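SEQUENCE-TO-STRUCTURE ENTRY
===========================

Subject: a protein chain together with a token-level encoding of how that chain folds.

Sequence line: the amino acid chain in single-letter code, read from start to end.

Question of interest: how does this chain fold, as expressed in backbone structure tokens?
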Amino acid sequence: MASNAPKVPKSSDPQLVRRSQNSARESWRMFEIISEFVLATERLQSVQPAVAIFGSARVTPDHPYYAVAEEIARRLSDAGFSVISGGGPGIMEAANKGAFAGKSPSVGLNIQLPHEQSANQFQDVSHTFQHFFARKVMFVKQSCAFVMMPGGFGTLDELMEVLTLVQTGKIRKVPVILVNGAYWKGLLEWIKGPMLADKMIGVDDPALLQVIDDPQAIVDAIFDHYLTRGFEPSPSEREAELAL
């Protein structure tokens, strides 16, 4: 007599075995991610206050942007800020090089990539991430200001990430400084024009960005921002950052 019971796959069923293997890999991946956060947190505890500098990996040492980034980083380092970059070439190297020559730590948050990224030699503290999102979280948690040099998709990604977190209250309001006003002009016109006119952002949101080209003025703007409130997050701000 035929049975209507569903067929239970045998343990040797290739499809079942493959699903089981994939599930085990995903479970172990979660432990890898947790470990990545724990190790990074332990290594970066001593670098605050810190300022993150972002910009293109494709800029060569003879480019004017490189020299500007290096000077900004040197001034920040001598003023008592650790400087955090993505640890690679281009603007990242310039930022680490300037900080390396200064009084405060030069920090590189490197990422494993199939191309383009290789760690530069100007790092007092170097930590390599496997996952982009873990790296981005640590940038945000460790930095009290963000300096955005000219860059490409990666720089825009970091810029919009920070603006979104500030806008939504996930992190405290921090200085977000665009360097080289001519480079950022088109983006700023779009933000203050169509985005604002169509009410895609709030009326105060464009003020989250500052454009400052002078290296010392950048250092002064960061100090001015924290003059009355101090560099440490408040208890409520720290609690909000735990939910990043």
In short: The chain has a mean pLDDT of 88.
